[in-house]
Amino acid sequence: TEFQGISFKLADMITAINAAKMLTYKAVWLKEQKGLSDPEFISAAAQAKLFASEMASKVTSDAVQIHGGYGYMKDYRVEEFFRAARLMEIVEGTSEIQRLTISSWELKS
Q1: Rounded to two decimals, what is the model's pTM?
Q2: Are 39 and 108 in contact (CB under 8 A)?
Q3: What is the pLDDT of residue 80?
Q4: d(Cα 12, Cα 17) in Å, to the nearest integer?
Q5: Cα distance between residue 42 and residue 26, in whole Å
Q6: Which of 2, 6, 29, 35 has the fewest CB atoms below 10 angstroms from its CB?
Q7: Hey, what CATH class is 4-108 in?
Q8: pLDDT of residue 1
Q9: Which long-range contacts (CB under 8 A, 24 or more apart) does 84-93 make?
């Protein structure tokens, strides 16, 4: 295609978003099956939060890059998504906290 480089980047972005959804769905399923205090759920929820928040930052950063200078303008929603994605990595536990949660629960099992 004419914009093959952007097509490849979009394919990677779509794949990352879908992978984050699948991890989240698994965590929700484990919560419904085993409850909030189950170690497998706790680890899965932390994995979903870690992966989804980091992928949101990467995907929105790529979206800003695709949009060029327009990606930083408030007239385009991509700028809003970029700021929100950065916040996701901090709210409800930083990525480092999620990594500690994952490793501690996985080492116990």
Answers
A1: 0.86
A2: yes
A3: 87
A4: 9
A5: 11
A6: 2
A7: mainly alpha
A8: 62
A9: 84/56, 84/60, 85/53, 85/56, 85/57, 85/59, 85/60, 85/61, 86/57, 88/52, 88/53, 88/56, 88/57, 89/53, 89/54, 89/56, 89/57, 92/49, 93/46, 93/49
Q: What is the pLDDT of residues 18-43, one digit of tens each?
A: 999 999 999 999 999 999 999 999 99
Annotated active-site residue in 32, 79, 92, 96: 92
Tokens of residue 93, six digits: 């536990």
Q: Rounded CA gap, 85 and 101, in Å?
A: 21
Domain spans, the chain: 4-108
Is 96 an active-site residue?
no
